[in-house]
Amino acid sequence: MTDLSSGSEQLRSLNVQRAQGVDGARHEDIDPQETAEWLEALDAVVAHVGRERAQFLFDRLASHALSVGVESARTNVTPYQNTIPFDQQPRYPGNLELEEKLAGALRWNALAMVVRANKAYGELGGHIASYASAADLFEVGFNHFFRAAAPGGEEGTGDLVYFQPHSSPGVYARAYLEGFLSEDNLQHYRREIGGPGLCSYPHPWLMPDFWQFPTGSMGIGPINAIYQARFMRYLANRGLAQTEGRKVWGFFGDGEMDEPESTGALSLAAREGLDNLVFVINCNLQRLDGPVRSNGRIIDELEAHFIGAGWNVIKVVWGADWDALFSRDRSGALLRAFAHTVDGQFQTFSANDGAYNRERFFGQNPELAALAAQLSDDDIDRLRRGGHDVRKLHAAYAKALAHRGQPTVILAKTMKGFGMGASGQGRMTTHQQKKLGFDDLKAFRDRFRLPLTDADVEQVKFYKPAEDSPEMQYLHARRAALGGYLPRRRRVASAGLTVPPMSSWGQFALDANGREMSTTMALVRMLTALLKDSEVGPRVVPIVADEARTFGMANMFRQVGIYSPLGQMYEPEDLGSMLYYREDTKGQILEEGISEAGAVSSWIAAATSYSVHNLPMLPFYIYYSMFGFQRIGDLIWAAADQRARGFLIGATSGKTTLGGEGLQHQDGTSHLAASTIPNCRAYDPAFAYELAAIVDEGMHEMVEAQRDVFYYVTVMNENYAQPSVPGGDLQALREGILKGIYRLDADVQEAASMAKVQLLGAGAILGEVVAAQRMLRDDWHIDAAVWSVTSFTELQRNGMTAERNERLGEAAEMPYVTKALQASQGPIIAATDYVRAVPELIRAYVPRRYVTLGTDGFGRSDTRQALREFFEVDRKAIVIAALKALADEGAIEASVLTEARRKYRGDAPAGAASWQC
Ligand SMILES: Cc1ncc(C[n+]2csc(CCOP(=O)(O)OP(=O)(O)O)c2C)c(N)n1
């Protein structure tokens, strides 16, 4: 039996070892004199030859040790101190006094915004403590680093900053001082409806001139920032944009780093040498409920993680007040004490005053007590963490900027709720604190030396220094020196693209003439042709997550190459073949490996390039549809927020087209999810010519007219005869295809004497519907008309709008689907390869009896035909549904239905439905 107590003891000691980092000695020192000699030898090299040489010797010794079988206990963790020693810290170029004044005003206004909103309206939420910890991290960037435009570049070509979302009050506070936002705006923080409101978190959809990157859902910022930096290299390598000198800055929480998306792409950033990327992690040691790593140290853990992933790590742990203490600490007592202090304890230290810290931290042993002897309790209280010292931060940012060949992470230790006094700083509950009492507000005012009267404080008045004050002039001068204000978002690219005529890329689909082809093949063929267009071609970004061969895209490897910043350093095994695996620094395909989250992040970077880089791109991300909305739905939601423009192609879509693959691969819901995203136009075409019309419209809408929509199109891998455009005139069908429904067999003569039924089919199931039409006519003497539904979701939107307008007394236009079906006769049966809820979307607008069939329930491994039978969306099930509806209406005898049931199902009982569990 496992001894639980000894297990937890082991874990505890492991944690202590980890926490001790390099200080945790594995063995007893059996010869201290010899140890001292080795250490002195190293010290001598540092002192007389320099750190670089010492580093060389140390690394050389370490690799030699390994080669003779001596393992090192050295972890990827350095002592708990600043990476940049005091003597290497450059002079601070800013005006500390003015910056402090400004930071005080920003801190106050950010706090006031939240306090006022909650005082006035009670339930609006908001955060104070996060910005209180992040203020200096942001401000060093704003005053000294964030470039609004690259040298000599135009507007919209500066640095890109991903802001920690719940610190946005601080960004608003700055925009207020800068004059971009008014007091009225601040007063409407979190009150957006019908007024000059400010959104809670960065949302480009809601503030399209301001926020560039949606970060409100934890983890999305980090992964998007990485792929943004990578996309900038892609653009530069392909000669499409000059991105040299531009940086991507990402400000994230230490708690946020727990999200798999936050760390999942770190190695990509290192592998591709993204030295245009800087992460600043706000290590305030707390998240929402409590400490991030109560029994460990998050800074150590992140350091090891980032070093392991290949990043350059700069720690900013202690502020300048600690420098003197460190220099007096000859025996390393401070580092030893830190090595034994876990974050839960550090948090308690931050929540308490100088006297407490003297007793509980410095009182641990005489050496520490001696170090603090000259400090008053107030001095101890003022000992700052590195993330609250702009000089330390500046040194770190400057070093990050100069670093080449690797991305950099700055791990900045801060205090959550810094300056929020006894009721906020370091408190467990601080994350959600939205109100501060009068005494705390006054203490905050005093701590940050704000020129506010008690009455001002009581009313929580916003504070803006006079425009001609030195600090405001300084604020504007700093931003002027850095190219302007930020964040600012560009709404449209200065030039759109001209979409090539369909004849140059989609003619084959219009004249398919019964050729067997899947819609996936059709799409790839269109893409291959589009890539050849001189204007649009270079802007097309084909993106795959290790499924190019699945979708028949291998021909593109040779045609446009796979992007790799390293080119191709090997001779590919298939070099001699027509379709060889060609990697190239100018490659156009983004082959992301098995990371849908990464691939869609690339797609987001490309799909927002019109705004971020003033360069419209046309990305097509082609993936297993099941691994789209279902797996990475939140990233797609963020893309929508960011006003992405591009194509998401859900391949092998539907629940029955992917025979064999089964439960986890068969998608029956993505269209339902797509219907909830307002700017997503979703289509489930059955035929190549429908696909051509949709791709054509999408290109016109997105890259020519520059509308902020994106397209989700599902395609299938089932080969079947592709008809030419009925009647040879796509124009005549175009409206129906794009609005979502059109009559497929418009020229069929209907016999007046026959009972009538309308069959609606979509995507993969349209073929079954056409077969059912034949069976109804031939076997049951029923006149069935077939309608191709390319988009239930677009029909629903149109219907909702019409319904609403009518309700509100506007001139009412009939819903498109109502108009289309109203002149027809008989009940209406819809069948799709998606859950029934998809065709149900339009029920309110269907003019007569409406019956829906869909693929509810878990998928299975089997043939397409067996699957369609199982889910009851096959031709027989459609015929039975049609006859049942006709019998219910009295249009046919009930005996016909009975006969049909017997014919198609024998005497089998209904049994369990596919969705019954
Ligand atoms: C995906 C997701 N899950 C949960 C949340 C709710 N949430 C917002 S902030 C927060 C805590 C953040 O902690 P940390 O990253 O350490 O930032 P801090 O505020 O401490 O600086 C949580 C859980 C969210 N925004 N997104």
Model description:
There is one protein chain. The protein has 917 residues and is α/β, with parallel strands linked by helices. It is built from 37 helices and 20 strands. The strands form 5 sheets. It has a 6-stranded parallel sheet with strand order 10-7-11-12-14-13, sandwiched between helices. It has a 5-stranded parallel sheet with strand order 1-2-3-5-4, with helices on both faces. A 5-stranded mixed sheet has the order 16-18-17-19-20, with helices on both faces. α27 links the parallel β11 and β12. α5 packs across α18 (390-402). The protein is elongated, with a radius of gyration of 33 Å. Residues 130, 133, 166, 216-219, 253-256, 282, 284, 286-288, 292, 416, 431 line the site of thiamine diphosphate (TPP).
Proportion in β-strands:
5-15%
Multimerization state: single chain
Poorly predicted runs of 5 or more residues: 1-7, 21-25
Mean pLDDT comes to 93
What's the number of helices? Answer: 37
**Structural class by SSE content:** alpha/beta
**Cofactors, ions, other ligands:** thiamine diphosphate
Roughly what percent helix? 40-55%
Number of strands: 20
Query: Major sheet, described briefly?
Result: 6 strands, parallel
Strand and helix map with partners:
Elements: H1 4-20, H2 32-48, H3 51-67, H4 96-121, H5 129-145, E1 160-162, H6 168-178, H7 183-187, H8 220-237, E2 248-253, H9 260-263, H10 266-271, E3 277-283, H11 298-309, E4 312-316, H12 321-328, H13 333-339, H14 343-351, H15 354-360, H16 366-372, H17 377-382, H18 390-402, E5 408-413, H19 438-447, H20 454-458, H21 470-481, H22 507-510, E6 515-517, H23 519-530, E7 540-544, H24 554-560, E8 562-563, E9 583-584, E10 590-591, H25 596-607, H26 609-612, E11 618-624, H27 629-641, E12 647-651, H28 670-675, E13 680-683, H29 688-704, E14 710-714, E15 720-722, H30 730-739, E16 741-743, E17 755-761, H31 766-780, E18 782-789, H32 792-807, H33 816-822, E19 828-831, H34 837-840, E20 850-853, H35 864-871, H36 875-888, H37 894-905
Parallel strand pairs: 1-2, 2-3, 3-5, 4-5, 7-10, 7-11, 8-9, 11-12, 12-14, 13-14, 17-18, 17-19, 19-20
Antiparallel strand pairs: 6-15, 16-18
Helix pairs in contact: 2-3, 4-5, 4-6, 4-21, 5-6, 5-18, 8-25, 25-27, 29-30, 31-36, 36-37
The structure holds thiamine diphosphate (TPP).
